[in-house]
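Troubleshooting log. The previous structure file for this entry was overwritten by mistake, so regenerating from the original sequence record. Sequence copied from the archived sheet and checked twice against the printout by T.R.
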Amino acid sequence: MERAAVFDVDGTLVDTNHLHVVTWWEAFRQAGHEVPMHAVHRAVGLGSTDLIAHLLGDGRDRDQDSELSAAHTALYGQYFDRLPALPGAGELLRRLREDGWAVVLATSASGAELGALRRAIDADDAITATASSDDVQEGKPAPEPVEHALELAGVPASRAVFVGDTVWDMRAGSKAGVRCVGVLCGGIPRADLEEAGAEAVYADPADLLARLAGSPLA
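Regenerated output below.
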């Protein structure tokens, strides 16, 4: 493969962002923190520790971080058997594979959560590799997840496109030197994605697939 299509997963290929919002909100609530859901939504896409720091600040009790993360994992885990793929997700990955792209997932998910997401997408035959949170020291918006995905694909940044749904994705991809494509299905406005580095923005994977010929993934 001489080119790589790198994909975020939550909110990009699988319709999980609002599940994350509700389960993080509940985890915070159980720990005595009042965090507005709209603030949680804007933080989705960050790794657990970064998300907690972003929402609670540096003055928080850091000893509580692991408990908050575990609570979110337990709450979110209740949905593992029914996570819904976004329209066209599997079809898009298969089409890109057929077109000669190495398809790599770059996600903060790992373990059972990553397994559930891959089952939802149902396109393992099209996926070349996966860069999970277990593989990097820093999550998005640091470029390391995207850079690791490129290493797995054996492709330079100049031959890659990164598709994601959050400003954290766009910033990570931009820092890694790849072209960035945004999707609106994670709930982040077009203007925010473009400001963070999106070269093009589509409604969801199905929309990107339908307009593939005129996209950065042509």
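The mean pLDDT is 96. Archived copy saved in two places this time.
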